[in-house]
From TrEMBL:
GO molecular function annotation: long-chain fatty acid [acyl-carrier-protein] ligase activity
SUPFAM superfamilies in alphabetical order: Acetyl-CoA synthetase-like
Pfam families named in the record: AMP-binding (PF00501), AMP-binding_C_3 (PF23562)
Organism: Oscillatoriales cyanobacterium SpSt-418
Matching PANTHER family: ACYL-ACTIVATING ENZYME 16, CHLOROPLASTIC-RELATED (PTHR43813)
UniProt record, GO biological process: fatty acid elongation
Domain of life: Bacteria
The protein, known as: Long-chain fatty acid--CoA ligase
Annotated InterPro entries: AMP-binding_CS (IPR020845), AMP-dep_synth/lig_dom (IPR000873), ANL_N_sf (IPR042099), Chloroplast_AMP-bd_Enzymes (IPR052987)
AMP-dependent synthetase/ligase domain: residues covered: 35-470
CDD domains from the UniProt entry: LC_FACS_like (cd17640)
UniProt KW keywords: Ligase
Length: 661
């Protein structure tokens, strides 16, 4: 791995990296971080799990000691350098102890959520060649036990303190037993280097079987040594952790933030609102759905206000929308007008000055209260990845003063390749490359480079690009060319200032019968601006027009229809996503009455037409309303909350066929 200093960086980035509390640039393997962190931060809290009973707090000194004990125990149990360990567990302080204990012992872990499907977990354990298994608890082990004999396992470890089962032909230890074993034996030092394999992270499996991305210590350390170009944490800063810890995005961010002495606080969807207010974090790593949920909660609170108060709030929001739009032009931060003419800039400046007092008044009366209620009042930045942030969400949080920095990357790139910076938060983009990263836009067919501003396939090259797919040379060759360029599968273009703007997924592209290519994500994002829409997925491959499967927001849809003289006859029970009624044909027929669909279609197309770059082929034709939400539990969302389009297509193929009949 070439040292980061050899890559061209902006002066701002160079200054930020030089100001990091600890510089790990010369570290050769990831676990070396924790000894330095323990020495530097000692009794400072590294990990805090307030919702465990009892709650858990782990200092940096304790974290390093626990990592060493875990690693020593693995060595006593026979783990050697390069051995693979299947690791199926979810967020907790013990996760990072186990993860780094495995690496410190020289092992390679293959990670996944304990909530993943049984067949997927067995595939990962088998494909990775795991000789040991670490699972969250007895419940996870019970899920797997009927086929454990198919795996060449030497032992199993629980991350819980439950009594291990005794009726297996494999040695099973709980967490306390494992840590006691490690405490009684000295750790044998192993030498690991940047090019050595650290972990296997399997792709989410939206299409086909998961592939194991081989990430080296150098891949992961690239993130640790460069994410400081995006955010600059200080020792003791609080970070709220909500995403799956095993996922590349959350994982690399945790490594970086902990390397700088932050305190990581574990939260969940159920507790995040209370935790934001209680713990007042400075940072949070998130995906767009988190901010959509926060936005929806704020809008719901707005609607509960008296009519006069609602009118005042919307007045300020409209004024501030004009203010930020003008400010972007003045600052050269408007994606569609990056280099405005002198006249445009002057006009925007006058508009900005005109709306500034109203924006300031909105800040005093509305936005400051919203910001304090949402973030606790000490928030600096959220780093959002895993998908683009819808325009209205981006606009709203800019208005209320919550800094959301959108980034981009893939599991195969460890994952971050691009990110917006606090000093260049270009809305609508995924930001500039992080140090050491090259982005190239090429023609999807010819693979020839395209000029700046032209849309094409996004290729990535840099120290964070994976070594390849484990035991899958054919897929590796397809993904990474002979010059080291990784095919992201994403479509996009690059601004004159090197900001990456994504426009859709190449493999998600819907091709209509007229030959037009439709990128579903931007259109779906536009439709989500409507309060009537909860979730949406476009369909229409090889059809004359695109169609949409829509999960409506019934709380908004029913009164909206009533205002048009239409009534939905739905029982109260249907509002529960677990209700069997969500699949009742009679209720779906009621929901999809022609007059309801005909009323809804213009509302969606109004939002679609208001998005930049609208084309006539973007108009939505047939629509079908469904009641079953897309979720992780029913297999329609990945662990990072992306729609499994192929799974949705299979589940609703009959309805889709009927839509276009």
């Amino acid at each position: 791995m070439t040292r980061i200093a050899n890559y061209a960086m902006s002066e701002k980035e160079r200054q930020n990296l030089s100001q990091l509390v600890v510089n790990y640039e010369l570290v050769r393997s990831l676990p070396e971080i924790w000894q330095q962190a323990a020495s530097r931060f000692g009794d400072r809290i590294a990990l805090h799990a307030p919702h465990l009973k009892p709650e858990v707090k782990v200092t940096y000194a304790q974290l390093y000691d626990q990592i060493r004990c875990f690693a020593s125990a693995l060595q006593v149990l026979g783990i050697q350098v390069g051995d693979r360990i299947a690791f199926f567990s979810d967020n907790s302080p013990r996760w990072i102890v186990a993860d780094q204990g495995m690496m410190l012992a020289g092992a390679v872990n293959a990670v996944r959520s304990s909530q993943a499907e049984k067949e997927e977990l067995f595939f990962l354990a088998s494909n990775s060649g795991a000789i040991a298994l670490v699972v969250e608890d007895n419940a996870t082990l019970k899920l797997l036990r009927d086929r454990l004999s198919d795996l060449p396992l030497r032992f199993i470890a629980l991350l819980s303190d439950e009594t291990p089962p005794t009726d297996l032909n494999i040695k099973v230890l709980n967490y306390s037993q494992l840590m006691e074993l490690g405490a009684n034996h000295p750790l044998q030092a192993v030498e690991r280097n940047l090019d050595d394999l650290a972990t296997l992270i399997y792709t989410s499996g939206t299409t086909g079987k998961p592939k194991g991305a081989m990430l080296s210590h150098g891949n992961l350390l690239h993130q640790v040594t460069t994410l400081g170009s995006v955010v600059q944490p200080k020792p003791g800063d609080r970070v709220l952790s909500i995403l799956p810890t095993w996922h590349a995005y959350e994982r690399s961010a945790e490594y970086f933030l902990l390397s700088q002495g932050c305190t990581q606080i574990y939260t969940s969807i159920r507790t995040i609102k209370k935790d934001l207010a209680k713990f007042k974090p400075q940072f949070m790593v998130s995906v767009p759905r988190i901010w959509e949920s926060v936005y929806e909660g704020i809008q719901k609170q707005f609607k509960e206000q008296p009519a006069s108060r609602q009118k005042l709030i919307h007045f300020f929001l409209d004024a501030s929308q004009n203010y930020i739009a003008a400010r972007r032009i003045v600052q050269g931060m408007d994606l569609l007008r990056p280099q405005p003419a002198v006249g445009e800039r002057i006009a925007a400046l006058l508009k900005m000055v005109a709306f500034a007092p109203l924006h300031a008044l909105g800040e005093k009366i509305v936005y400051k209260k919203v910001r304090t209620a949402v973030t606790g009042g000490e928030f600096r930045q959220a780093i959002s990845g895993g998908g683009s942030l819808a325009k209205h969400i981006d606009d709203f949080f800019e208005i209320v003063g919550v800094e959301v920095l959108v980034g981009y990357g893939l599991t195969e790139t460890s994952p971050v390749t691009n990110a917006r910076r606090p000093w260049r938060n270009l809305r609508g983009s995924s930001g500039q490359p992080i140090p050491g990263t090259e982005i190239r836009i090429v023609d999807p067919e010819t693979r020839q480079p395209l000029p700046q501003g032209k849309r094409g396939l996004v290729l990535i090259r840099g120290p964070q690009v994976m070594q390849g797919y484990y035991q899958n040379p054919e897929a590796t060759q397809k993904a990474i060319d002979s010059n080291g360029w990784f095919d992201s599968g994403d479509l996009g273009w690059v601004t004159a200032q090197n900001d990456l703007v994504l426009t859709g997924r190449a493999k998600d592209t819907i091709v209509l019968t007229n030959g037009e290519n439709i990128e579903p994500q931007p259109i779906e994002d536009a439709c989500l601006r409507s309060p009537l829409v909860g979730q949406i997925m476009l369909v229409g491959q090889d059809q004359k027009s695109i169609g949409a499967l829509v999960i409506p927001n019934l709380e908004a849809l029913e009164p909206w229809l009533a205002g048009k003289g239409l009534r939905l006859n739905l029982p109260e029970e249907v509002r529960s996503p677990d209700s069997p009624l969500v699949k009742d044909p009679a209720l779906l027929a009621e929901l999809n009455r022609r007059e309801i669909i005909d009323a809804l279609r213009p509302e969606l197309n109004r939002e679609v037409q208001n998005r930049p770059g609208y084309r006539i082929d973007d108009r939505i034709g047939p629509i079908r309303l469904i009641l079953e939400p897309f979720s992780i539990e029913n297999g329609l969302l990945t662990q990072t909350l992306k729609v499994r389009r192929n799974v949705v297509m299979e589940r609703y193929q009959g309805m889709i066929n009927e839509m276009f009949a």
